[in-house]
Amino acid sequence: MRFAIAALLFCTSASGASAGRRVVRAAYAESSKAIYMGQCPVRLVFTGTILSARPGRITFVWKRSDGRIGPARTIRATRKGQTWRVHEEWELSGTTHGWAQVWIPAEKYSSPPARFQVRCK
């Protein structure tokens, strides 16, 4: 059975920029398996959605509970309301729990974490 955790949070600027200057309106992340019990290793796929507030460049990274920060990727919004689906994979070989989230450094903004639990047999 496939489970997903998703959360949506509308952006408030932690960097002090005015609302008209934000490029990201909202972001969320979900895990392909919120709870997994079975053979390991297991590959989790995280899917993030980024929604633009206005035209501009959006540079984002994936942050994970193990301390890893993925490579920076940049997308360009050409209009308000554009959305992108972005993905990250994480292979786990032992029983653990954690999270992954989309982080937009320039706006000091992140999606709520997509949490998961893995129990290896």
Shape verdict: elongated
Taken together, the total number of domains comes to 1
CATH class descriptor name: Mainly Beta
Give the termini distance in whole angstroms: 16 Å
> Main beta sheet: strand number and arrangement?
6 strands, mixed
What is the CATH superfamily? Immunoglobulins
Mean pLDDT: 87
Structural class based on helices, strands and sheet pairing: mainly beta
Q: Low-confidence spans: pLDDT under 50, at least 5 residues? A: 1-19
CATH topology: Immunoglobulin-like
Helix content: under 10%
* DSSP strand count: 10
CATH A-level architecture: Sandwich
Query: Mind telling me the C-alpha Rg?
Result: 15 Å
- How do the helices and strands follow one another from N- to C-terminus? EEEEEEEEEE
Strand content: over 45%
Task: Report on this structure.
This protein has a single domain (about 10-120), classed as Immunoglobulin-like (Sandwich), CATH 2.60.40. The protein is about 0% helix and about 55% strand. With about 120 residues, it is an all-beta fold. Strands 3, 5, 6, 8, 9 and 10 form a six-stranded mixed beta sheet that branches.
What are the main properties of this structure?
disordered N terminus, mainly beta, 121 residues, Immunoglobulin-like, 6-stranded mixed β-sheet
Write the layout of secondary structure elements.
Elements (H helix, E strand, L loop, with lengths): L8 E2 L13 E8 L3 E4 L3 E11 L3 E9 L8 E5 L5 E10 L3 E9 L4 E2 L3 E7 L1
Parallel strand pairs: 3-10
Antiparallel strand pairs: 1-2, 2-4, 4-7, 5-6, 5-8, 8-9, 8-10
